[in-house]
Design brief:
CATH architecture of one domain: 2-Layer Sandwich
Main location: cytoplasm
Radius of gyration: 13 Å
Subunit structure: Interacts with ribosomal protein uL14 (rplN).
CATH superfamily of one domain: Beta Polymerase, domain 2
Shape: globular
Strand content: 15-25%
Pfam families: RsfS
Helix content: 25-40%
InterPro entries: Iojap/RsfS/C7orf30, NT_sf
CATH class of one domain: Alpha Beta
Family: Belongs to the Iojap/RsfS family.
Length: 119
């Protein structure tokens, strides 16, 4: 099983919104074979707490324009790692230190990456 076309569209929309706010190391994985609860993860980093919030806001705005609403949102108060769950995709916006410590891309390295086609 692979991520749906709709999920891939949401992934690319979220990734582009994050990149537009200068997120670094933007990656996406198709986790549909490993998890039944979502199709894809988007992971990106920010240099400080304020940038984490700016990226989260941009992603939410872009996905809202695509008629996607988050089912769950976690970590915003601390501003170090915010998780946005859209059911089909999950977006992780992490402070660089959390990104290095938790190394999500290492955990999911067996999953295929998604070509983000960022501009």
């Amino acid at each position: 099983m692979t991520a749906t076309d709709h999920a891939l569209d949401l992934v690319r929309t979220a990734a582009q919104a994050a990149a537009d706010k200068l997120a670094t190391d933007v990656l996406a994985f198709d986790v549909s074979d490993q998890l039944v609860i979502t199709d894809a993860f988007v992971i990106c980093s920010a240099g400080n707490d304020r940038q984490v919030k700016a990226i989260v806001d941009a992603v939410e705005d872009a996905l809202r324009e695509a008629d996607a609403k988050p089912v769950r949102r976690e970590g915003e108060r601390d501003g170090r790692w915010v998780l946005l769950d859209y059911a089909e995709i999950v977006v992780h916006v992490q402070h660089e230190e959390e990104r290095q410590f938790y190394a999500l891309e290492r955990l999911w390295r067996d999953c295929p990456t998604i070509d983000l086609q960022l501009t």
